[in-house]
Amino acid sequence: MKKLLNTLFINQTDVYLSLDGDNIVLLKDQETLGRLPLHNLESVVSFGYTGASPALMGYCAEKNISLVFFTMNGRFLARVIGQSRGNVVLRKKQYRVSDDEFMSAKVARNFIVGKIYNNKWIIERMTRDYPLRVDVAQFKEVSQHLSSIILEVRKCEDLERLRGLEGQAAISYNKLFNQMILQQKEDFYFKVRSRRPPLDNVNAMLSFAYTLLANDMASALEGVGLDAYVGFLHRDRPGRVSLALDVMEELRGTYADRFVLSLINKKVVNKDDFLKKENGAVIMTDDARKKFLASWQTKKQEKITHPYLGEKIPWGLVPHAQALLLARFLRNDLDEYPPFLWK
Q: Cα 90–93–95 angle (5° rounding)?
């Protein structure tokens, strides 16, 4: 159980939620695991729930406290709310901002600042931790280049210009990615990002990690009442979770890229975990995907101090924290959306 930004997160399995007076009570096998007053909560988020009492649902609906249910793997199931009040206002604000490219750029630039900043510090950490394994001079040069791009992004008010700056930063960062692969170099290498289809083992893993992260991010956004399909940087396209792709930009490197690198460098995966199809596409075997997913769930339980909130939370709650912060910004509770800045 973790309280964060007036939201209660419950990630224990087989927990039943009930009401006692003005308190939410967590029960497992008829034993009380926790009790918390409801009057200061805006929402209750439960992972892997067993159920919730009708009395609790009725109380939360009456008090405009949302009850949100996810699977243990983070897939969004349902959001139970009372009369449509704040949720409608929040989404209408999201749609207005999305329709205005100038306003969209002012929000989207913070996602890109977060992405480039985090990639810069991935590079800096490599020079600190592996000075004899990487080209330190080249890494420092790219780090400085990323710092200069961040300064331009901070004042950018045009979406096309913003995409161009993000593209420049991505090219510089990707030039170094192969050097960050420290083990199994014959079987795992990175030359260029290939998506549809991935053409090597590393790209196959990156694509899978980005898909998982996008799904987690979309679920988190739906959980706070935002529309995951209406973005600011990524424009509307049928079936595309544009807002999830926006917000996950700042987590691509520090969450997904570092995860993939760790699986390679720790030899959790090997060349036998991949198959090459006739069209050149590389896919992961069923066993490899199972290993990948198991490691992904373990990663989500690792604790990190959130750089803006200053609280220790599991990595798996980072998308939820960012979704909450974005919702607060759109409600005018924050002057600016604070990106996730890892160091």
A: 110
Of 114-118, 245-249, 259-263, 276-280, the poorest mean pLDDT is in 276-280
DSSP state of 329: H
> Is the C-alpha dihedral spanning 308, 314, 319, 321 positive or negative?
negative
SS3 assignment, position 187:
coil
- φ/ψ of residue 306, rounded to 5: -65, 125
Is 166 known as a binding-site position? yes
CA angle 302, 192, 210 (to 5 degrees): 30
186 a known binding residue?
no
d(CA 116, CA 108): 13
CB atoms within 10 A of CB 130: 15
Phi, psi of 136 (to 5 degrees): -60, -40
What region, left, alpha or beta, does residue 239 occupy, with left being phi > 0 and alpha being psi -120 to 50 degrees?
left
**159-185: per-residue pLDDT in tens?**
999 999 999 999 999 999 999 999 999
Maximum Cα–Cα distance across the chain: 64
The SS3 assignment for 311 reads: coil
User: Before 37, cis peptide (omega within 30)?
Assistant: no
Give the distance, in angstroms, between the CA of residue 290 and the centroid of all CA atoms in the same chain.
21
Predicted confidence (pLDDT) at residue 154 exceeds the cutoff of 70: yes
Alpha helices in the chain (DSSP H): 54-62, 86-99, 101-129, 136-154, 159-177, 201-223, 242-251, 258-265, 286-301, 318-330
Distance CA 102, CA 117 (A): 23
Q: Is 302 annotated as a binding residue?
A: no
Say if residue 82's pLDDT is above 70: no
Q: Residue 284 in contact with residue 273, Cβ under 8 Å?
A: yes
Q: Is 40 exposed, middle or buried (0-12, 13-18, 19+ CB in 10 A)?
A: exposed
* Residue bearing tokens 């206002």: 89
Q: At 87, which amino acid appears?
A: N
Could you tell me the sign of the dihedral formed by the alpha carbons of 195, 199, 202, 204, in that order?
Answer: positive
Instruction: Measure CA 198 to chain center.
Output: 22
